[in-house]
Write a structure and sequence with these properties.
Layout lengths: L13 H9 L3 E3 L2 E3 L17 E9 L8 H8 L4 E5 L1 H5 L5 E9 L9 E3 L5 E3 L1
């Protein structure tokens, strides 16, 4: 624990760190635990948090739209895409795709994103 109150975690490998990030969300006593990769020059005194990584699920997404290009494009309509969880990347889960997106807490988040499929059908996510 840092003197300013931040909790700092170290991991044996980047893969293990990403496994923990992919496993969220996590809660401590009912409150969300926000995990972020610490930048090289982190200001421990900064208290204003205006951006937060958030897991977003895209349910029943057609398999042709589960590629990184489509998922990043879809996620960028919400915020800054960071990465997909392992089952989404490996295409081993078909109920939904899950993407970690950095959202700006000062902006209104969309409640849904509309996609128009090549056959003209609208799909709401």
């Amino acid at each position: 624990m840092h003197d300013s109150g931040w909790l700092i975690f170290t991991f044996p490998s980047k893969t293990e760190m990403l496994d923990i990030l992919d496993g969220g969300p996590y809660y401590v006593f009912g409150w969300p635990l926000i995990l972020k990769v610490m930048p090289d020059f982190f200001d421990f005194q900064a208290i204003d948090m205006i951006k937060m990584p958030t897991w977003v699920r895209f349910p029943n997404l057609p398999s042709i739209y589960r590629t990184p290009i489509y998922l990043l494009k879809l996620a960028s309509m919400i915020g800054k895409p960071i990465h997909c969880d392992a089952p989404t990347t490996n295409m081993t889960r078909f109920l939904y795709a899950k993407v970690l997106i950095e959202v700006d807490l000062l902006l209104d988040l969309p409640t849904f994103v509309n996609m128009v499929l090549p056959n003209g059908i609208s799909l709401s996510q």
